[in-house]
Amino acid sequence: MRYRSIFQALEHIKRSLPLILLLRKPDLSFSFAVKQQADCVGGSEKDSEITPLEQTMADNNGGKNGLLLYYNQFSFYSQKVVMALYEKNLPFETRDIELTGEQYKPWFLQINPKGEVPVLQDTGKIIPDSSRIIDYLEDNFSNGDTPRLIPIDQGPEVRQKINHFRDLIDTINGNVLTIGSMIHPELATGSKKVPFIAPVRKQLVNADKNSADNLRKYAQENPDAKEMLLEKAENQEKKREKLLNKDEFLKICQQAEKVLDEVEAELSQHTNGKQNWWLCSDKFTIPDISLTILLLRINQIGMEPFFWTDGKRPNIEKYFNRVQERDSYKKTVPGTFSLIKTIFKNQAPLILGVSIAAAIALIVGGWFVVRKIMRK
């Protein structure tokens, strides 16, 4: 019995380690990226002609020209921009923003007064909002090896269809679906994927519950952004009140179903040589990015049985399986290894401590086993 207890304890350590690592960070929320320290650098007398915003932008990009994306790798709207950048074969740098308060730090509010990601910095230009960023990339980087995401050689009908489906799909708020699925877990019966494992879902629900109060706290700390942050706090309270009502959340889901019904109908028409088409064309376009990231999020939060599996929307299911083979998808979606790697970087001292404890337990357990064998 003594040896069995030792092995059971070792097995418990093995099973508990991932959870211990996740729960150690008390404010774990949307962000799993390692925080890169950011200092809001003010101008000195000798460089007073440089504004604080210009100095911050220069520091964040190391003084280099090029595209710098302020984002979070697990953010719904950030992923749209990342996928667009990869689709257009554009080189870019990233700056991870922890969505546990870093977006409301004074230095970031200088860059985006709304305190939201993603934000694109193109040398001296700042472009917020995922839709605006994608439009900027399309308008300014569409030549040579940089393909268009809105083809100009396929006629006005295709362009009209692209604009229609882009606007249609973008009416679905992925963050609302995410939090709603966690408040009403009986509607999310599918398996949950990284990063939305159990402890993370719990943290997200708590973060949403406390979000309005936290926004009011940040408003007091940032007088220049006080009005905007107080407005966000009020909107957050209204959104949460709506999400807590299951009937209201079901209405949101039903609206998403109407959108996906139209997408399903369009995909069902891809016959007679169009089997390899994407949503609107044989080219991968902007609404394909919106659709891909939406389907990804639905899959991650376990709501795919609600929306498309078991023959409910077979063309959407086929589309999602196909798009996962696309190179831009693989580069955009952080997997389990990415999560483990960032947690390891954040929690190296704890991992070392737990590893030592586990090693000691293994040595002690092994010693008891050896003694038992030698006594026989």
Automatic annotation (TrEMBL):
The name this protein carries in UniProt is Ganglioside-induced differentiation-associated protein 1
The UniProt entry's GO CC annotations, sorted and at most eight, read: mitochondrial outer membrane
Q: Where is the GST C-terminal domain?
A: 155-344
Q: Which domain of life is it from?
A: Eukaryota
* Keywords linked to the UniProt accession: Coiled coil, Membrane, Transmembrane, Transmembrane helix
Q: Which GO terms describe its biological process?
A: mitochondrial fission; mitochondrial fusion; protein targeting to mitochondrion
**Record keywords: Coiled coil included?**
yes
Query: Which source organism does the UniProt entry give?
Result: Ceutorhynchus assimilis (cabbage seed weevil)
